[in-house]
Amino acid sequence: MRQRYLDGLARGELIMSVGVSEPSAGSDVRAVRTRARREGDVWVIDGEKTWITNGAHFDLMICTCRTSDDPARGLSHFLIDRDEHPVATRPIEKLALNRHSTAQVFFDGVGVPAANMIGREGDALKNTLVLFERARLHVAAGSLGIARRALDESVRYAHLRKQRGKPIAAHQLIAAKLADMAIWVDAARLLIHRAAQMLDAGLRADMEAAMAKAFATEAAVDICRQAVQIHGGNGVTRGYIVERLAREALLLPIPDGTTEIQQLIIGRALTGISAF
């Protein structure tokens, strides 16, 4: 499979998707119900995935399926080649971030070769938890980009917009808002870099990735809200970039584990006791 697909993925010729979330399984991966049953040299998949990024347009999907009822080793990964194994999809329209298609994906007796199992049977739970570390860092980095752009737009606007004969940047309340926004941007960047360096070194970064994701996504929401305030009426007007940034930021605390889930992960790492 590596020889067949990796070059196309690296060149951007193939679109990859990851199918974990289901109507009854989001942050709780163990609740996955999509089932794969072995029939000779084929695994037959039945079930439904939802909130799948690139779900409407993927070429390849890494699909998490239940292959047994074992609570620890009951999940396995399969590679779905859409050209060979067609599936039905239904797009989900979101408030923002619609350049990344999100969809429901339906499996109705979809047969995939046994060779398309990724890793060993029963390894998907462990591998998915590791995958989430990188996915959370990806969302955090995207949030940082949105936050940085909102700050830059606010600084620019604070120079251009005048009140009482001077730029609003000369008013203390605006200066204080910009200062807070800059602090949040730098704090998010440092948290992201720390987690990324750990992952690059081959270390687990469960707590660090959760910290980066929780802080960066919530900071993006707060920074964009302040950017809208600085822009005043223009901040809620179509055509001004901060209006779009504010809508996009609202979505970011949700995917790959909500802020509340990140807090539980951090708490577990600190105490050694799981609250979920």
Number of domains: 2
- What is the H/E string? HEEEEEEEEHEEHHHH
How much β-strand is present in the residues? 15-25%
- Ranges where pLDDT stays below 50 over 5 or more residues in a row are none
Report the strand count: 10
Provide the gyration radius in Å.
22 Å
> Strand count, sense and closure of the main sheet?
4 strands, mixed
| Overall geometry | elongated
CATH top level assignment of the largest domain: Mainly Alpha
Widest beta sheet: strand line-up: 1-4-5-8
Please identify, by name, the CATH architecture of the largest domain.
Up-down Bundle
Helical amount among residues, as a percent range?
40-55%
CATH superfamily of the largest domain: Butyryl-CoA Dehydrogenase, subunit A, domain 3
Give the N-to-C terminal Cα separation: 36 Å
* Averaged pLDDT: 95
CATH names the topology of the largest domain as Butyryl-CoA Dehydrogenase, subunit A, domain 3
Find the structural class using helix and strand composition. alpha+beta
Give a description of the structure:
This protein is an alpha+beta fold. It folds into 2 domains: 2-119, Butyryl-CoA Dehydrogenase, subunit A, domain 2, CATH 2.40.110.10; 126-271, Butyryl-CoA Dehydrogenase, subunit A, domain 3 (Up-down Bundle), CATH 1.20.140.10. The protein has helices spanning 2-10, 124-160, 172-200, 206-231, 241-251, 259-271, and strands at 16-19, 35-39, 42-53, 60-66, 75-81, 88-91, 102-113, 117-118, 162-163, 166-167. Helix 2 (124-160) packs antiparallel against helix 3, helix 2 packs parallel to helix 4 and helix 2 packs antiparallel against helix 5 (241-251). The protein starts with a helix and ends in a 5-residue tail after the last helix. The mean pLDDT is 95. Residues 18-110 form the Acyl-CoA oxidase/dehydrogenase middle domain. Belongs to the acyl-CoA dehydrogenase family. Pfam families: Acyl-CoA_dh_1 (PF00441), Acyl-CoA_dh_M (PF02770). Residues 131-270 form the Acyl-CoA dehydrogenase/oxidase C-terminal domain.
